[in-house]
């Protein structure tokens, strides 16, 4: 038997997927419980340096991350045992679609049922019932989503069966009444040994959820924090990094930034001047513009790790260089992929000058703030994930042009606050490709 280790947390439905898949395949493995609320193990941080989250499957010393990817890997690594994905390419594509639907819709709105109250919870319940009915339609008269065979979509959704009681109790409805076929499917899944041995008891989930809600309510009573943001925004990522550095818990609300008509009423009301993200809402009072928000975060929690220097001159210098990042680095970085030919070449020369100016300011320091990660670092760090797109679009190397800045970038990415906030360079590059086509650059 090959060496298999699973880094997991007992209540994680995502880790439970992996446990179910391994059980269905009859694979023996070593289970290692991780402390996801405290100090994470060196093995977890090494195995999943991007997200630093469970579950992680380590097979022959090689880590695989993200639960649905892990389940597919398990299916492919042990192909001679019970198949989890259909053999037909179209059926496989459909299975992947519905498994992704579980993550993007079912899990998201299920979580809202116990996180929200009042009208917001009522709206989430309506959407959740629609999601259940869509799943009901996909299940149809089949025994499992995979037909007669328990498979990929079943594994994706089965761990959430133990959450049904919490969903119903929090939002006041019955899944069996709303989606009887899904409820019956859930009972069939729980009769399977692989599922019953992996998932948590509904009472334990309910108690855990209640404890989390008590903590959430206590912290909200102390200071309510909401961030209106968009996943790929480097400006919003600044705020996320600052909040993480301060250890501030907050409610994240993803905004649809494609046109004013698609923006939430809360965003339009909170930022009537620019109608843009990010907006930090602190005890009901909105703060706009990322660098202003970061300073506000620093001043609102002065007893935690300082982000802006205490010395007035050093503060002024930090504000100068953070402003330089917005006015020069961001501006010319954007031009690198928006332009072509001579215009792009001229921009590249200017961008390299900008890099060298930052290199001069960084000098021999660990961070722009010295030994401490601070305001200028937070201003620039989200753009590290754009480096690959800049280099690929304009044909140059940031490491060659500004080795100290490149080394600083690597150090910054090793910080949990940064790694958890910024986007993966591949995702940025893919998005830039779409934007190039939109702007007619390609």
From TrEMBL:
GO terms under biological process: glutathione metabolic process
Coiled-coil portions:
none
Q: Which residues form the GST N-terminal domain?
A: 2-82, 223-305
Q: Where is the GST C-terminal domain?
A: 88-206, 311-429
> GO CC terms on record?
cytoplasm
Q: Name one Pfam family in it.
A: GST_C_2
Please name the PROSITE patterns in this protein's record: GST_CTER, GST_NTER
Q: State the superkingdom.
A: Eukaryota
Molecular-function GO terms, alphabetical: glutathione transferase activity
Q: What is its EC number?
A: 2.5.1.18
> Which reaction is this enzyme known to catalyze?
RX + glutathione = an S-substituted glutathione + a halide anion + H(+)
- Cite the PANTHER family for this sequence: GLUTATHIONE S-TRANSFERASE U19, GLUTATHIONE S-TRANSFERASE, GST, SUPERFAMILY, GST DOMAIN CONTAINING
Q: What is this protein called?
A: Probable glutathione S-transferase GSTU1
Q: What is the lineage of its organism?
A: Eukaryota, Viridiplantae, Streptophyta, Embryophyta, Tracheophyta
């Amino acid at each position: 038997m090959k060496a298999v280790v699973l880094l997991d947390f007992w209540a994680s439905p995502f880790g439970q997927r992996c446990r179910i898949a391994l059980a269905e395949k009859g694979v023996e493995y070593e289970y290692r419980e991780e402390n996801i609320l405290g100090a994470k193990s060196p093995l977890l941080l090494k195995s999943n340096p991007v997200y630093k989250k469970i579950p992680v499957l380590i097979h022959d010393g090689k880590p695989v991350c993200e639960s649905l990817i892990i389940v597919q890997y398990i299916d492919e690594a042990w192909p001679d045992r019970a198949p989890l994905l259909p053999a037909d390419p179209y059926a496989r594509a459909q299975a992947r679609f519905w498994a992704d639907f579980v993550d993007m819709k079912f899990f998201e709105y299920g979580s809202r049922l116990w996180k929200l109250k009042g009208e917001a919870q009522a709206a989430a319940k309506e959407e959740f019932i629609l999601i259940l009915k869509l799943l009901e339609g996909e299940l149809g008269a089949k025994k499992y989503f995979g037909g007669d065979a328990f498979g990929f979509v079943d594994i994706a959704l089965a761990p959430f069966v133990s959450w049904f009681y919490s969903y119903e109790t929090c939002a006041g409805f019955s899944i069996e009444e709303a989606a009887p076929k899904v409820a019956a499917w859930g009972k069939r899944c729980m009769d399977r040994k692989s599922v019953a041995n992996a998932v948590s008891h509904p009472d334990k989930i309910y108690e855990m959820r209640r404890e989390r809600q008590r903590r959430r309510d206590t912290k909200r009573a102390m200071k309510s924090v909401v961030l209106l943001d968009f996943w790929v925004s480097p400006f919003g990522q600044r705020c996320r990094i600052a909040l993480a550095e301060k250890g501030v818990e907050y409610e994240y609300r993803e905004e649809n930034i494609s046109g004013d008509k698609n923006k939430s009423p809360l965003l339009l009301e909170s930022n009537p001047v620019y109608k843009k993200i990010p907006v930090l809402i602190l005890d009901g009072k909105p703060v706009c513009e990322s660098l202003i928000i970061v300073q506000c975060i620093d001043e609102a929690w002065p007893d935690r790790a300082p982000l802006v220097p205490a010395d007035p001159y050093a503060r002024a210098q930090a504000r100068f260089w953070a402003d330089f990042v917005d006015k020069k680095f961001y501006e010319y970085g954007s031009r690198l992929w928006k332009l072509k030919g001579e215009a792009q070449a001229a921009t590249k020369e200017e961008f390299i000058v900008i890099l060298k100016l930052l290199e001069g300011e960084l000098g021999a320091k660990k961070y722009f703030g010295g030994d401490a990660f601070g305001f200028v670092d937070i201003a620039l760090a989200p753009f590290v994930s754009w480096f690959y797109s800049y280099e690929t679009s304009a044909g140059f190397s940031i490491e060659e042009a500004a080795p100290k800045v490149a080394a600083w970038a690597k150090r910054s990415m090793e910080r949990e606050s940064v790694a958890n906030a910024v986007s993966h360079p591949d995702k940025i590059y893919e998005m830039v490709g779409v934007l190039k086509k939109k702007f007619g650059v390609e």
